[in-house]
């Protein structure tokens, strides 16, 4: 199957925006001070097809930091370098059943980070990034994320500064992994690289393109560039299906029926393999840290656009 006609997509995006814009549930993340200032009324939706067409409504061109959504694309980049088995062994692909910043999840699993979509696993994945120096490793990360978006992305300096100043928990997680031998790289440097990648600015439209690149088997529909092999996209989407919305990943899959990844600044990307991806931005979050309006819009559009992977028709 393919996506509906462009005019139908545009109309359904507008309908989703209209339906959920007044939903005031959820709360903007405030454990990172710079995120607490986000406008809770911002709401943007963008759908990117594997053919490169992009449809948007609302605040789809407003920039926000990637936060945990970076984890999905970092996983793809590292999986592409090191391969399926190495990443499984080093990081894992099972859900923790616990919040994204859980220390308990590490303790309960003999020091294994469990999956790349929570902080411990993303820090472990960042520790696997190739490069001889921190600068080279950063170039690998920012270059890779930019290739997924099809444009040069930059760090939000204020978010990076704010998150660096309030990063005690992630530094502790890296130290704990290091003590178990599940992080070989320097913990401080690894957390800094992780924090920088979380601070990279994107728009909902960028998320749609980044997701559509995974939906298309690794070719960016905006630039035509091949970034990763189809097998890497399969690995990434499987990891997202299991853990992309943290401990709520089962509920998400049950309701939306597609792999997705959320971040605490309010971004959400939902991928339909072979068809395209939905990018959304709306800062208020549910208790697990997933955008409230983003989830509702994905639910409506999954059904309206016929995207659910488990639907036979
Ligand atoms: N940078 C954030 C953190 O490490 C990312 C968390 C998230 O988006 N869930 O806490």
From TrEMBL:
Q: Does the keyword Hydrolase apply?
A: yes
Reactions performed catalytically: L-glutamine + H2O = L-glutamate + NH4(+)
Q: Which UniProt keywords are listed?
A: Acetylation, Hydrolase
- Name the gene for this chain: glsA
Q: Cite the binding residues for substrate.
A: 68, 119, 163, 170, 194, 246, 264
- Determine if Hydrolase is one of this entry's keywords: yes
Q: What is this protein called?
A: Glutaminase
**Which family is it part of?**
Belongs to the glutaminase family.
Q: Which domain of life is it from?
A: Bacteria
How would you classify this enzyme at the top EC level?
Answer: hydrolase
Organism whose genome encodes this protein: Occultella gossypii
Q: What is its EC number?
A: 3.5.1.2
Query: GO: which molecular function terms?
Result: glutaminase activity
- Stored Pfam families: Glutaminase
Q: How does it assemble?
A: Homotetramer.
InterPro entries according to UniProt:
Beta-lactam/transpept-like, Glutaminase
